[in-house]
Structure formats: structure tokens, C-alpha cells
């Protein structure tokens, strides 16, 4: 079993280290992660410049690889042959913030799992629901053990080639976790604000900031599961088609207008 690990926080992130230490129980672990933080990078693929890959090492001495590319690039490099051994499953994380609702479209962590699915591999994104101003030292080991359990289930039971998983773990002691919940995406509420400033030469520049997002804790959603203390597992698909809309829009009877009409 050959497991590829990546993330969007960079190769030195403690969540990646915890994941590597736990997943070794399942098989060979290879780490290829970005050399800097790519949070909120979305599904970025580097085509306009060459990618550099170099050897690195995790905090416990584990050999690793790092690149100046995105999380999705890390997966692409691996499956296209950077490593001689075939990859069997891809895990991304452990992200030190939850990825809920619309967050999945922004998340480099989740999009790395999506990249795996595009290549026909099982992809799993793992995030820990830490508070905004969380302590510097965080114990990622419980979330890593949950990732191991879910990975085992995926390898035993399989996933459709178009499906990948977004997993969010509550920030609770393991004994207080309320099991697993298979969920849909919830409604994320953003409070973004545009902050306009001036540089020393009087030229404007902008920060997109605002308060931390919240969400509607509706039952059956990822947000609702975390609110109840359960581990949320949301199956996502590379097929973004809204099938009900196809039928609705077919009644529009659109016809091309002739030039000059």
C-alpha cells in the first residue's frame, strides 16, 4: 500500500507530521507537500512556469519532498511519475481549520483530494475544527487516528472514481466525540469586508478581511455534525453538474439569433 500525503499549509506543518506518523501503520507513506502556505488557493494547477522539487525532512526526521507548486500540483507530480511506485490513495491535511460548506471550493486541502479523484485515485481531505485564535501547540494525533480509520474503510470498501471525501473533526477530546456522521455541505455564512488602504506613496491597495465565517448548524450537514460533536464525512464529486437544472433549462427553448436580426 502506497499512501501519498500532502497539504496546503506547507511541508513543515504539524498536522502533516501527525498524519505521516499515523498512516505508516497502513503502508508506505510518501510526503510531497508545498514549500510554503497555499491556504485558500483552491484548485490551482501550475502551467505557466516549471515546477521545482527538492528533498526535505519532517520534524521527526522522516524524509519528505517539497515543491514550489500548489497542493494540486503535488498530487499531479506524484501520479504522473515523479515517484517510481504507483500511488494507491491520497490524503491531504491535517488542516488546522474546518473546511465546511462553500469553503471546499477555496480550500487547497480539499482540492488536493479532488485532484486525486480526477486521476482515478481515492482522495481524502482531513481538517480539524480549531478556534480562530487556537494555541500554537495543537494535538493533531486524535484527528490522525480518525484519518487512519477512514482510510482503512475506503481501501476496504472503495469509492467511485469521481468521489472524494471531505472530513472535518471536532476539536474535542477523543472520548467526547459523538461518532461519525455522513453529511452534505452546509450553508457557510461569510462576513468578508474590503479594507482600502494607501501605501506611503499614496497609492491604494486592498485587503479582503472581515470577521471569521460562521454557518447554519442544520441537521444532516457538515456544520450540524460538528456542532453535535460528530466527525463529519462529506462525499463530494468531481462532477459539478446540476442535473435538475438541465431539465428546467431545456424548457427555455433557446434559439440562436441570426446576425442583424
Class in CATH? Alpha Beta
Shape: globular
What is the CATH topology descriptor?
Stationary-phase Survival Protein Sure Homolog, Chain: A
Q: What fraction strand?
A: 25-35%
Number of strands: 11
The low-confidence parts are none
Largest sheet: 9 strands, mixed
Report helical residue fraction: 25-40%
Mind explaining what this structure looks like?
It is built from seven helices and eleven strands. The protein is of the alpha/beta class. The protein has a single domain (2-187, 215-252), classed as 3-Layer(aba) Sandwich (Stationary-phase Survival Protein Sure Homolog, Chain: A), CATH 3.40.1210.10. The strands form two sheets. A nine-stranded mixed β-sheet has the order 3-4-2-1-5-6-7-11-8, sandwiched between helices. A hairpin with a 5-residue loop joins strand 9 (188-198) and strand 10 (204-215). The termini are far apart. The relative contact order is 0.14.
List keywords for this structure.
261 residues, alpha/beta, 30% strand, globular, 26% helix, 7 helices, two-stranded antiparallel ribbon, Stationary-phase Survival Protein Sure Homolog, Chain: A, nine-stranded mixed β-sheet, single chain
